[in-house]
Design brief:
Elements (H helix, E strand, L loop, with lengths): L3 H7 L18 E3 L6 H17 L2 E9 L2 E9 L6 E8 L3 E8 H13 L19 E6 L8
Antiparallel strand pairs: 1-6, 2-3, 2-6, 3-4, 4-5
C-alpha cells in the first residue's frame, strides 16, 4: 500500500491537486473568441452563478468596440440566488442599475459568451486587435463602479 505522498509524487506535474487556499471561483474567466462548445458555455455559466450565490463575488463582462468599453456586472442580491443586481456601464451614457432574475442573468451570459468578440466584426483584417471581450468572476470589492 502506498502513501498519499508517494501517490502525489508519481502524478505528472499538471495533475497536482489545488491548494485548499485557492478560491473556487478563481479560474472562472473567459476571453472571446474561445473554442468552448455550447454545452460547455452553459456549464461554465451555471458554475459562475453558483459562486455568485455562495461567495462574496460578482461577475463582470467587459466588451470593447470602436464605440468604447462597456461593462456589465452581476451581483447576487439574495442568499438563494434568484435575484441579481445588474450594473451596466456605457462610457457615453454612464452607469445604469437594475434588479434581474437568475434566468435573465443566465440567458444573457450564455448569449454573450456564445458570440464572437465584439471587435471581430468592427476591426478590419489587417488591423491589430489589442483588446478582447472578457468575462471574469472576482471579489465584489474589486468591481469598478465609477459614477
Amino acid at each position: 500500500m502506498s502513501s498519499e505522498h508517494e501517490q502525489q509524487r508519481s502524478r505528472p506535474t499538471g495533475e497536482q491537486t489545488k491548494q485548499p487556499s485557492e478560491e473556487p471561483w478563481a479560474d472562472l474567466e473567459l476571453t472571446l473568441p474561445h473554442t468552448r462548445s455550447p454545452t460547455a458555455i452553459v456549464s461554465f455559466v451555471e458554475c459562475a452563478l453558483v459562486e455568485l450565490t455562495h461567495e462574496d463575488v460578482g461577475a463582470e463582462f467587459v466588451s470593447t468596440s470602436v464605440a468604447g468599453v462597456k461593462r456589465t456586472q452581476f451581483i447576487a442580491v439574495d442568499d438563494v440566488g434568484e435575484e441579481f443586481k445588474k450594473r451596466y456601464l456605457d462610457e457615453r451614457l454612464g452607469w445604469h442599475e437594475a434588479t434581474v432574475s437568475r434566468k435573465a442573468v443566465r440567458d444573457e451570459l450564455v448569449n454573450r459568451l456564445s458570440q464572437r468578440s465584439s471587435l471581430v466584426d468592427e476591426v478590419g483584417q489587417n488591423d491589430v486587435v489589442t483588446a478582447q471581450d472578457r468575462f471574469q468572476v472576482k471579489p465584489v470589492r474589486e468591481l469598478r463602479v465609477q459614477k
